[in-house]
Amino acid sequence: MEGNQPINKFFVDSGGETTVVCPYCQVVKAVCVLKYRDRHELLKVKCVCGKIFTISLEFRRHYRKSTELEGSFECLPPAASGGRMRIVNLSLEGACFEVNGLHNLKEGARGTMVFTLDDRKKTVITKKMVIRNVTGKRIGCQFVEERAFEKELGFYLFL
Questions:
Q1: Per-residue pLDDT tens for 33-55?
Q2: What one-character DSSP code corresponds to residue 76?
Q3: CA distance 140 to 26
Q4: What CATH number did the domain enclosing 118 receive?
Q5: Which member of 29, 31, 97, 115 lies 3.0 to 4.6 Å from 85 by CB, making a disulfide possible if both were Cys?
Q6: How far are the Cα atoms of 28, 42, 54, 151, 159 from residue 96, in angstroms, in the given order?
Q7: Entry pTM
Q8: How many helices (H) and strands (E) does the chain have?
């Protein structure tokens, strides 16, 4: 990378396209990137201005925001687990949270999470969820309710 430029993250739309902006000359180009869907490495891009820069592609359906939100969760039987959590990232469709100590959480467990946004109003959000992956103390979950899009959550994510 020239000049220690940061790695730029570009979100890919449902059609497999992203809009790449050169950090040197600000040239904008729409690019089809479907062939990179299953590749998780960084990509080097050469702009028409001749500069080379590094990008990463994000193929998620919804933007995911890094957070430090405190909250609690409770899983329904048979998991019957619960406790305090810290949400490390959040999107319109799910969250990744960390728990302290030992737990017996497993993929497929269902439950509810309650957390407070760090917005001006300290908005309290309650979501029904299903656990999609467990990696040590990190738990990935998907929201599973009819009202998946809440105005407050959407506004918070795109601040």
A1: 888 877 777 889 999 999 999 98
A2: P
A3: 36
A4: 2.40.10.220
A5: 97
A6: 32, 23, 26, 20, 19
A7: 0.60
A8: 1, 11
